[in-house]
Fold this sequence. Notes:
Helix content: 25-40%
Strand content: 15-25%
Number of domains: 2
Bound molecules: flavin mononucleotide
Oligomer: single chain
Number of helices: 11
CATH superfamily of the largest domain: Flavodoxin domain
CATH topology of the largest domain: Rossmann fold
Structural class: alpha/beta
CATH architecture of the largest domain: 3-Layer(aba) Sandwich
Amino acid sequence: MKKGIIIYFSGTGNTAFLSSLIKERLENENLYEIELFSISKDSKIIDLSSFDLIIFSYPIYAFNAPIIFDKYIKKLNFFNNKKYYILKQSGESLSLNNSSSSYLKKRLKKSKVKIDGEYHFLLPYNIHFRYDDEFVKELYFYNQKLLDIFIYELKNNIVRKIKSNPLIYLNSKIFKIQRLGGPLNSYFYKVDYSKCIRCNRCVNECPINNIVIKNNKYKFKNKCIMCMRCSFNCPKDAINIGMLNGWRVNGGYDYKRIINDSNIRGEYLKEHNKGFYKIFKKIIKENDEKYNEYFSQK
Length: 298
Ligand SMILES: Cc1cc2nc3c(=O)[nH]c(=O)nc-3n(C[C@H](O)[C@H](O)[C@H](O)COP(=O)(O)O)c2cc1C
């Protein structure tokens, strides 16, 4: 079987979950044997020459790819005559997210490599507010259809593009808040020692070793990349994330339970179709239309 690789960064597990779904689907279809490669600070440089399919995946942070993702991409060498895809994901579908792959695209273009398709999946917020299980399931259904579309287009060499424009590009440049926001906000991170059980999970899981133990206290250095892994995964919700604390979300999404629980129907938007939730309507409709175009006869 041909070989593929998914190179991804995941702060709090959503991109890791999506990557495992993509792997499962490509392998079940007997298309590619997939290696999953998760980026962290000390990741080795992968030699892409031995892969036929290369997929990049990341969560969108303020309309951009995570810094750690772009930094890793910078180190890679790209080769022609392979298939390249971008399968990114985020909490919502605003077109302001459409320039998030600009650095990756620039690098690929420089190496004269063409992109075979770009796809935007939807997974729940790990910051701002927690998504209801019903909504998580609805997005899971959306993603399953988009995965079907991806496989169909891959098999039929249909190139999917996500359109951007100079204004969207400019917006993502302005909002590169991670560069400044992470280091600055680091000064305000605090641990609530009345809750903390000293499990060191935050220290062990930080993808850039930004948390150290000094005099029996947790110290945050100023290299934070804002992935939220420390506070999101803290079993006692003991980490205060400074200026973003009002947007803190704690605790992972239990996908296995949500998917398997038939009482969770995934019909959240029917009842919540105002305000924030309105923005999902268009993309879900377009996804359904494309899905029906490809599969309604079968
Ligand atoms: C610092 C930060 C900024 C974010 N900005 C956006 C954004 O601009 N648009 C969006 O839809 N989601 C945004 N999100 C939400 C994440 O993209 C989303 O929750 C994603 O599924 C997290 O993936 P992960 O678990 O693999 O890290 C942001 C999350 C973080 C931590």
